[in-house]
Known about the structure:
homodimer; alpha/beta; Quinone Oxidoreductase, Chain A, domain 1; Rossmann fold; 15 strands
Amino acid sequence: MSLTQLQVVLRARPDTALEPGHLALVETPLPEPGDGEVLVRGRWLSLDPYMLAQINGRHVTGNLEEGEVLRGEVIGEVLQSHSERWKPGDLVRGMFGWREYAVAAADALTLVPASIREPRWCLSMLGMPGLTAYAAMHWQAGLNPGETVVVAAASGAVGSMAVQLAVRSGCRVVGLVGSHEKARYVIDSLGASDCIIRWEESFAEGLDRTCPEGINVCLDLVGGAFLEAVSARLVVGGRIVLAGVQKSAMAEPLAPVLPALWIKQRARIHGLVVYDFEPRREEFLRDCVPLANEGRLVVNEEVVEGLRQAPEALVRIQAAQHAGKVVVKL
Amino acid sequence: MSLTQLQVVLRARPDTALEPGHLALVETPLPEPGDGEVLVRGRWLSLDPYMLAQINGRHVTGNLEEGEVLRGEVIGEVLQSHSERWKPGDLVRGMFGWREYAVAAADALTLVPASIREPRWCLSMLGMPGLTAYAAMHWQAGLNPGETVVVAAASGAVGSMAVQLAVRSGCRVVGLVGSHEKARYVIDSLGASDCIIRWEESFAEGLDRTCPEGINVCLDLVGGAFLEAVSARLVVGGRIVLAGVQKSAMAEPLAPVLPALWIKQRARIHGLVVYDFEPRREEFLRDCVPLANEGRLVVNEEVVEGLRQAPEALVRIQAAQHAGKVVVKL
C-alpha cells in the first residue's frame, strides 16, 4: 500500500472566465525525496490573483500548461530530510504548488523565521504581497510625510499593506475598493483617510472628491482608465507604481495625452515585479515583523478549508468577491 | 530722435500649422533700464521646438498670447547697467525673447562663463538642449557601459548631445532620424552605431534591425507609436525618458498593453522638464565645457542671419527641415 495525496492541475485553459471545472483534483502517490531533497507537508497554500494570469497564459513568470500542477507559495513542515540543511520539524516556505505534500531540493526552501508570531503571515503581510507593497511604497515611489497616496485594490493583500505602510509614513491615503464594506475596513482598520467605491462613482469623480490637491503617489493594480485618471491628477514630481493590470484594461486603448501628462508633471513610472526584491526580503522583515507581532500591521485573512475548496476560492478571487488575503488550510 | 529696435510678436495663433504670417515684425523704441536693471544687446537668439508648443498653446511653461513678444533664450552683451552686479561688456544669458535689445532685472541674467570657447554654445550643447540630454542620460536613465541606447531626433540639438554622451559612456547608440544625410552625420560625426530613418522603415522594423538584443535606454521625443515600439523591445530594467511628444502622436490612442509591458520589463519611465535641472547646471558644465573646448563634443549649428529671417526659420523647425541647432545672429 502506498500513501497518496491530492493535487490540483489545470485541466483546460479557459476561453473566457475560469470556472472550477477548468481545474481538476488528482490523487497521486506521495513522492519520495532523493539525495539532497526534503519531503514537506504543506500547511498553508497562498491563493493569489497572479495564478489567474498564469492560467490565462499572460504572466511574467511564464504560463501554466494544461496538465500541469498549479503553482503557489506554501508554508509547510519538513517531514523527511536527505539534506544536512534541514531537519524534520523545520517550518519552511517554498513554491510547492497546489499539493498536500511536496518534494523539494534543499535550496528551494526558505526557513520561516521563528520570530514571526503566526507563520501563515509569511504568505500575506510578511510575504510576497507585503514585500510587493513595501517595494512599491518605500523602494520605488519613496514616500514623504504629508503626501497623498492612492492605493488600488486597497482591501486586498498587497493594497492593504500599502495603505498601512503609507499611513505609517505620515501620508494621507485614499483607497480604491469595490464595496462599502471594504471601504469601512480600509478606513477603520487600516487607517486610510477616504475611499473611492468602484461602480458608485467614476475614477475621475472619486479622485477629484478625495484628492482635491492632486496625487503624489499611486500604487496601480488596475491600469487603463484608472491609470489615465490618476495621471491627469498627479502633482509635479508624482510617482506611479504599476504592479498589475486588470484583464478588462487590456482591451481599452490608453489616452494619447498620457506621455504629455507625465512630462508636464515630471512623473516617474515604475514597473514592479516582486521577485526582483527577494534579495531585500530581510530588510523588509526587520522593519515589519515587530510591527506585525505587536498588531500594528494587520491582515484580513479568509481561510479556505482544504485543497478541495481551493478551485472555487480562486474563482471568487477572479470575481473580486474575497476580502483581503485568501489562504488554503491544507 | 529715439532709437528703435525690431521684435517679433505672435499676430495670430495658427489653427493648424504655423506660417510666417502668424508672426509679425514690429519696430519699437529702445527700452530704458530702470534702477536695478540692465540694457542688453542680443547677439544670438536660440530657436527651439518648444516655441511651437508655446505658440500652439500647449507648453508646460505656459502659452503665448496674441500680441506677445515670442520668448527665447539669448546670449547678449551688457550695454548699460543700473546694477552693481553687472558692468558694460559682460557677456550674459537670459530669456530676453525675440528682440534685438532687452531690459532685464539684474537677477534675470546669468554670466556666460569665460571658460567657454564659443559663447553661442550656451544655447546648444552647453545650454538647455545639452542640459536636457545630460539630465536624461545621466541623472534620469543612468547609463551603463555596453547598454543599447535609442535616441529620437538624434541629429537635433538635444538628440545629438544625447548620442555623444551615451557613446562617451560606452553605450551602443541607435538614432532615429528623418533622412540619410542626418543618419550619416549621426553615425560619422556623433559616433552612433546605427540609425533608423523614419518614413523608410517602420519603427518596429527599424528597432528589430538595429536592436536585436533589445533596448536598455530610450530618449523619447516622439511619443505615440514610437513609444509603443520601444516599450515592446525594452529589456528587463529598461528606462525611457519622455522629453517631448510630437503633435501627431497626441491624436493616436496608445496600445492598452503598454503598462503590462512596463511591468514585465520592470521599466522606469521619467517625464523630463529641463528647468528642474537648472540648479545642477554647474555640475553639467564642469563635465562638458572641457570636452566642448577640445572638440570632443560637437554641435551642428545652422545660423540664421537676423531677426527678419527668424519666422521662416521657425517654420522650417516645424517641418523638421533644419539640421541640428538653429541660432539667430541678431
